[in-house]
Amino acid sequence: MNRCVAIATMAACLASGTVRAQSSVTLYGLVDNGITYQSSSTTLGSTTGGHSAAKMSTGVWLGSRFGLKGAEDLGGGLKAIFQLEAGVNTNNGTSQFGGGMFTRQSWVGLSDPLYGVLTAGRQYTAYYTLLSPFTPNNWLTGYFGAHPGDIDALDVDYRANNSFVYVSPEVYGFMVGGSYAFGGAPGSLNAGSNWSAGVRYGYGPYGIAVALQRVNNSTPGGGVWGAESTLSNGGAQTAVSAINNGYKTAQAQQRVAVTGGYLTSEWNITASYSNVQYIPGVGSTFRNQATFNTAGAVLRWKSTATPWALAAGYSYTRATLSNGIKSAAQYHQFTLSQYYFLSKRTGLYAVEAYQRANGTTLNDGEIVDATASIGNGFNNSPSSSRSQFGAGIGLIHNF
């Protein structure tokens, strides 16, 4: 019996020592629920049968989630770090994405103040990380305010499986980063992979960033987006909308984006430009490269005397002529947001958006009239017509 007690005591001491070695572990999360309305709703790929719709929606301002993150001091400034983050549909309690639990983020890495941060797992790409301080979803939400269909991946929906990400420390205002994700497709290192690289510069309240991203379909030669493609959610290709539905069988996607702005505690002014290319292969349903250019700007004001924060934004997206299209698709989008701080952790919000589409686009190999699809929240329920109005209200709490 004494031997058993001694062994148990030793085990407890070892366990407690492990806990003391861990510098910090934090449980965090947020819950966001609201009601949204859209003037016209149909299924993706359809241009008829649209009806107005009102529904309860989760994660309009920010995606509902909970997670764990931590760091252990290894000495000399070096730290072991990790993050596990699960997305939750708080309307029904299910996981945000199928196929797992910690599908928002799940990575481990090393951090050093002199050499930067290297992480491995499912995580945001270097492309998003470097551009993100100046993107429209920060103040307008990605649900309503992302550029149409989130075609340039400036919203938070793009996370890469099987990826390594490196971000340097800031040196004289400059920060660089790069990422690579292994596709894992048998017989090909390139199929299903993605990579990105970028640089950001900041001087006081001013900043600018530029980044490039290449995403490869794991289906050789293009076609149905393969489940092994790393930039996906539960095997499904992300950010397919009425804007780019005709090009979802691309062999590869390539994006170049520039973001910048002026950020203070009261005023934020940001602007962005992106060039997105859909590159066909022998298995694609289109024959010529399709390119979309988007420019946008956001103005945000936060009162220092009241609990209000207000923002307004505009973006313009235009496709190039290709694949027999004679009138290029164009999308004008206007977004407003209002946020009222009940406390530092809890707030009420409202968001409104309007989009107008013109020209023609490609849909399953056929040339059709371009239809509206606001932001990133209506990708699966676009308008059946050229116009769409949407609005939402909700409550968010952080813990």
Give a structural overview:
- With 399 residues, the protein is mainly β.
- Mean pLDDT is 92; it is low at 1-20.
- Strands 1-3-4-6-7-8-9-10-11-14-15-16-17-18-19-22 form a 16-stranded antiparallel barrel.
- Helices cover 9% and strands 51% of the residues.
- It has a domain at 64-342: Beta Barrel (Porin).
- The termini are far apart.
Cα-based radius of gyration, to the nearest Å:
22 Å
Write down the CATH class of the domain at 64-342.
Mainly Beta
CATH architecture of the domain at 64-342: Beta Barrel
SSE-based structural type: mainly beta
- The helix content, as a percent range, equals under 10%
User: Biggest sheet: strands side by side, in what order?
Assistant: 1-3-4-6-7-8-9-10-11-14-15-16-17-18-19-22
- The named CATH superfamily of the domain at 64-342: Porin
Q: Label the overall shape.
A: globular
- Count of DSSP helices? 4
Question: CATH topology of the domain at 64-342, anyone?
Answer: Porin
Query: Largest sheet, described in full?
Result: 16 strands, antiparallel, barrel
Protein topology:
Elements (H helix, E strand, L loop, with lengths): L1 H20 L2 E18 L9 E8 L6 E11 L2 E12 L4 E2 L9 E8 L3 E9 L1 H6 L5 H4 L1 H4 L13 E9 L6 E8 L12 E10 L2 E11 L15 E2 L2 E2 L14 E12 L3 E13 L10 E13 L5 E12 L10 E12 L4 E13 L1 E4 L2 E4 L17 E12 L1
Antiparallel strand pairs: 1-2, 1-3, 1-22, 3-4, 4-5, 4-6, 6-7, 7-8, 8-9, 9-10, 10-11, 11-14, 12-13, 14-15, 15-16, 16-17, 17-18, 18-19, 19-22, 20-21
